[in-house]
């Protein structure tokens, strides 16, 4: 903890990965743990691990802001289930990491507290929305971190920062205490330095939780065991033609194709496959995610949580002023888009249609997974972009999520891991997608490759 505290002191002024730091209490807890564990060697995987948590995960007694003015002073009275599980294992919390406000964005530039920076190049974004978590791991400001992924928010920042990010199957990890963005898509997962850390951390947080009705009652395998094989023999690996189309940066394409060659050398059978609905994924996502967000964010009305506007003459003005002052421009844009998509007269044309196409996307994946065990793609079309480059063009920003979004729509697990560098010296990520609840196969392939 001391080493990490020192490191945070050195680099945090430049990287700005954290919204809230609790280094002192981590140190006190570590000392207490040292006294408690003296001579006792049998600890649990996360015992004593200095971790960082994305600031949309509720932590009892520690502010949970979602990088929004709306929740700037919100201190949850309870822990998210993932946090409670880590606490049972005596993990150590170093702090809460920056994100795009309410996890809406791909660069952390939508944070009400200012952007985080990419440790590889401080002029570039770390990605988002779990940009603070990825930057903290990449800059050695923690051992590992948790993020959340609704449309790529774990994998894209992991790729931009040259670390490992795993989005579990929908339902694998409890969402209880994760501040909801789009409930049918959100999943919590690890951001780590390597694949074995991701396996450890997933094992620590996964499993059924009665407090989340969408959490799945499916046994959690020993993920560390999955790492023993160190090859991909007998695995069929699909390459979707649609993911290697125009618009992919040549450096990214080259690095991913080289990774595919390596998977072949490790014993994998490479097959070309088709996922024809890929081009609809971004449109479907931005209808469904904004629709769900508009409903989830209705609770921030100045009455129960967080900010309450002052000097309002009646209840309606209290609602209006609170939301006007509390939400940033991207959140407002999404609430409006989502409310429109759900409004009577437009519901069938937008929300209903998007749900129908979501089913087609799921069917595409189901058909592909009858032929192959894993699917490999780039994580992003380009390496990390410059701060400010896309921030006034929301559509450009949305399109950068093209390779990660369909995975959330289909509820599948996927991992992002480093597979090389661009000519501009920025990390490039490889995405491996698996069948539902087969994180072990994902981890095995990723570990064999890394
Ligand atoms: N970048 C996507 C968005 O802006 C995904 C965000 C996420 O996964 N939380 O919605």
UniProtKB/TrEMBL annotation:
Statement: the UniProt record of this protein carries the keyword Protein biosynthesis: yes
Gene Ontology MF term list: ATP binding; glutaminyl-tRNA synthase (glutamine-hydrolyzing) activity; transferase activity
Keyword tRNA-binding annotated: no
Record field: catalytic activity: L-glutamyl-tRNA(Gln) + L-glutamine + ATP + H2O = L-glutaminyl-tRNA(Gln) + L-glutamate + ADP + phosphate + H(+)
Domain of life of the native organism: Bacteria
A GO cellular component annotation in the UniProt record: glutamyl-tRNA(Gln) amidotransferase complex
Gene3D superfamilies per record: Amidase signature (AS) domain (3.90.1300.10)
GO biological process, one term: translation
Keywords: ATP-binding, Ligase, Nucleotide-binding, Protein biosynthesis, Transferase
Active site per UniProt: 54 (charge relay system), 129 (charge relay system), 153 (acyl-ester intermediate)
Pfam families per the UniProt record, alphabetical: Amidase (PF01425)
Domain Amidase as annotated: residue spans: 1-443
Entries under InterPro entries matching the protein: Amidase (IPR000120), Amidase_CS (IPR020556), Amidase_dom (IPR023631), AS_sf (IPR036928), GatA (IPR004412)
Subunit architecture: Heterotrimer of A, B and C subunits.
Function field: Allows the formation of correctly charged Gln-tRNA(Gln) through the transamidation of misacylated Glu-tRNA(Gln) in organisms which lack glutaminyl-tRNA synthetase. The reaction takes place in the presence of glutamine and ATP through an activated gamma-phospho-Glu-tRNA(Gln).
Protein family membership: Belongs to the amidase family. GatA subfamily.
NCBIfam families reported for this sequence: gatA
Protein name, per record: Glutamyl-tRNA(Gln) amidotransferase subunit A
Classification of source organism: Bacteria, Pseudomonadati, Nitrospirota, Nitrospiria, Nitrospirales
